[in-house]
Design a protein that fits this description.
The protein is an alpha/beta fold. It is built from 9 helices and 6 strands, in the order αβββαβαβααβαααα. Strands 4-3-2-1-5-6 form a 6-stranded mixed sheet.
């Protein structure tokens, strides 16, 4: 059974969340369009968020997005992340196994092998904790609840991050279309700019939610 990281490890971790088109009807999981990364501050609940776009066609969106730090190939970007993880001796933490599946499928094999010891899936320990505390009620289990629900029950006093009715997959498709038609951010319509900004805001919320859930779990398990 997976054990919870210490609160020090939780605070030192880098938080990862991918966005893309999702699984296809034939079962194929495409390479993500972007990734968000969150690095907690040394103290408090805040931290620094940044994102990377993996499609070179998204260069106009990259130029217009204040949170974007790179428009990079998948392997090159995670080679840099691996170097940071090794230098800082910390974990790459994510909400479910989806991120690990993507990394295994699309990263260079040698690079992925080096990354494996640094990976940490928060979902199993979060489900165990939620079920033990009956956070979803006596008749409900944690398995079918998404990240947003976990955040709501673990941080009831905090405002939830805004929903994204359009959905990340559709936003990615619409940004693809915008980037195919316009080479410059200034040529995007206001609506097309909103697709980019709303996608990044949604990803930011997922990264920050995962961090705050991990922080709560790290503190809780330290008391056991």
């Amino acid at each position: 059974m997976k054990t919870m990281l210490s609160i020090t490890e939780v605070r030192n971790a880098i938080y990862l969340d991918f966005e893309g088109e999702g699984k296809k009807a034939d079962g194929l999981v495409p390479k993500p369009h972007m990734a968000g990364l969150f690095r907690p501050n040394p103290a408090g609940k805040g931290g620094q968020y940044a994102c990377v776009f993996f499609k070179k066609e998204w260069k106009p969106a990259f130029n217009g997005c204040s949170a974007a730090v790179a428009c990079s190939s998948f392997d090159n970007f995670f080679a840099e992340i691996l170097q940071e993880l090794e230098t800082r001796d910390c974990k790459l933490l994510y909400w479910t196994m989806h991120e690990a599946v993507i990394l295994e499928k699309y990263l260079d094999h040698k690079l992925y092998s080096k990354l494996i010891p640094r990976l940490y899936n928060l979902h199993p320990i979060a489900k165990k904790y939620a079920n033990k505390k009956r956070l979803f009620g006596n008749q409900d289990t944690a398995s079918k609840h998404p990240l947003e629900d976990f955040f709501s029950v673990m941080h009831a006093k905090r405002n939830p991050y805004p929903p994204f009715p359009l959905g990340a997959a559709e936003a990615c498709r619409r940004i693809d279309t915008a980037c195919s038609k316009h080479r410059k951010w200034s040529h995007f319509s206001d609506k097309q700019k909103d697709y980019v900004n709303d996608l990044v805001a949604y990803n930011t919320g997922d990264c920050r939610s995962t961090w705050l859930i991990a922080k709560r779990l790290g503190n809780a398990y330290a008391k056991f």
